[in-house]
From TrEMBL:
<dbReference type="InterPro" id="IPR049939">
    <property type="entry name" value="NifE-like"/>
</dbReference>
<feature type="domain" description="Nitrogenase/oxidoreductase component 1">
    <location>
        <begin position="17"/>
        <end position="370"/>
    </location>
</feature>
<protein>
    <submittedName>
        <fullName>Oxidoreductase, nitrogenase component 1</fullName>
    </submittedName>
</protein>
<dbReference type="Pfam" id="PF00148">
    <property type="entry name" value="Oxidored_nitro"/>
</dbReference>
<dbReference type="GO" id="GO:0016491">
    <property type="term" value="F:oxidoreductase activity"/>
</dbReference>
<dbReference type="InterPro" id="IPR000510">
    <property type="entry name" value="Nase/OxRdtase_comp1"/>
</dbReference>
Amino acid sequence: MATEAKRLIFRRTNCSCAMPGVWRALAYVRGAAVVFHSPRACAHIARTLETGAHYRSIARGAAEERSAVPLFVSGIAEDEAVFGGEELLRRCLDHVVMNARPEAIFIVSSCVAGVIGDDAERIAEEAAEEYGIPVIALKSHGFLDGEYFGGYLETMRLLAENFMQPSAEKKQGRAVLLGDCGGASGEYVREVRRLLAALGVRDVLQFPSYLSLAELKAVPAAEFSVLLGREGDAAHEKEVRDFAVLLTERFGIVCAGDIYPVGMGETLRWIERIGALTGRAAEAEVLIGEERTAFDAVLAAGRDALAGKHVVLAVGRSVRYFKPEPICRLLDELGVVLTGVVILDAYLPDDRAEMVRRVREVSPAPVTAERDAEPVYTAADFVLTTHELANPHLRQIFLPMLPVAGRRGEELLIDCMRRCTARRREGGVLYA
């Protein structure tokens, strides 16, 4: 029987509404309080996301433990869904001011509030005048006005517009990271901070989630901004770049732009770009040499263990999430023979054609459909795959959905390949 892939997912778009995106952007902005004008379930969903992030942080051994800001919910129920919930929102705001004493309140309306026509912006204006603190109603209404990332970006813009003023002078050695990518203690941010520190940039802020309302005032004095992310979603990348341009126009913060330090090649380009933009070309040249030397040592050890091994690449992700070029280049540098590329049954026709085209441009290895892949799999020493394969006899290495920042991702993959080929037993899955 042919080997099949597990958990093939055809969904192409984000299915979360704007509210969790707003919450993620504000969750650790100390001094803020967030009010969901929604049924209770909406707040539960958003809070659950933060609980998951908290436990991932513990698993990573995060050096700094953060507590989320207060999240309140007005609790729209059947009566309010029929007759309106504005009075319910007013009572909720009274409760927030009395119990949390925030420096600012952010109101996030659900699709229910949008459908019944509650005017949260007017209520926010009245509350700001009454309480003497900023009360800001976001324009997003759950699923009615976009999705998760739209809410996140709207919050970034509101914070910049309401809590930042142009700085008289720039502070040398200060950078601002734009985005999240696993949080302040995540591997991506830790790697970016390590590289920036090697360039002499040690005053690094992360916007929006990991600054207090008071600390937001320090952002305009930053020399430059760094976009956190991974190439893949062109629309989202453009929106973040547009926000970085807004910071450039309003505050003179230079944007590194359009390069992400993911994979060895892109990381070296990223270092060179940062050095050129910030007048640190000499430091960048030294760092590039150090990174190459460190990676070459790992590559040499990997080549000793892996040269001549036969591998199959099984791909089931679109080019948006998986690019075959870095993998094929790495295998070639290691002397590993790519004997075939299997295109899994997880593609729409256009996505399949694009992946086949990209693979054939970078490798002479034959391209095989999943239904014909069994002899290709069994002839290989191991399989690099984007989906677990339902064959317990194959040695598999599962390629991560989100590549690791810097050279670390490729180093982890080399280590996985070495361990996979050294295993005594057949079968099993290693996660790169």
